[in-house]
Amino acid sequence: MAEVYKAHHPTLDRYVAIKILHSFLSEKTDILNRFQREAKHIASLSHPNIVQVYDFDTFGVLYYMVMELIDGITLKNLIKDNQAEGKLPPFKESVRIVGDVGKSLAYAHSRGVVHRDVKPANIMIDKTNRVVLTDFGLAKITSGPQFTTTGALVGTPAYMSPEQGVGQQGDARSDLYSLGAVFYQLVTGRFPFIAETPIATVFKHINAPLPWPRTINPDIPEELERILVLLLEKTQMIAIKLQMKWFRISRIWRRC
Q1: Claim: this prediction has a pTM higher than 0.70
Q2: Are 180 and 228 within 8 A, CB to CB?
Q3: Given CB 3.0 to 4.6 Å as the disulfide criterion, which of 41, 51, 57, 109 pairs with 172?
Q4: pLDDT at position 113, please?
Q5: Which residue in the list 13, 100, 117, 135 is annotated as catalytic?
Q6: Gap between the Cα atoms of 76 and 183, Å rounded
């Protein structure tokens, strides 16, 4: 959909990331609108764990977004590096990462913005160890009109919530389910559900019982396992229950 370049911003006197929509896509009204929505959504958010947008505009037929340049590594690559060494991140570090993303989501949700594609590739850790949630390309304003056609799958199968799997609009709980899938991968080294095809994986998210984390990694603290199971519940939950998860995660982090 877009390419990202590193550039120097003379006015700000800093390096930035420029996200440019592919020119042939700028002629497609739905994709152009989606790109513009992404820029507006992120620009309206100001949180230390969400990538900052400085500007967005057009230049001829090019549509671009100027963003904070994150000097670091994606969580996807961090997981891959750990797997190559045959190890998992320390529990305390995993809880810190998930907790910081949870804070960013709680803030975005309070502003009516749902991410809808939370996954390791969209989570970065910079050189100062700050966790940053990126790529709100699938985001929507919850109080606004519905932009995705009913029945269309929006998200990434390995981390997709059951409601997204059946073509429903993702909501705040969907983001937390996806974050739960990321958390599960961090502490077990596996996806919650694995199948031969992406659609089969989606069906497992919808119907299959969750393999209990401690059956895969017995070293996982029991209370942490309970939170993982809670995050990956397939039923919709009330908002207060969602908020309580992060208080419980913070307590576990301090004890890890």
Answers
A1: yes
A2: yes
A3: 109
A4: 87
A5: 117
A6: 12
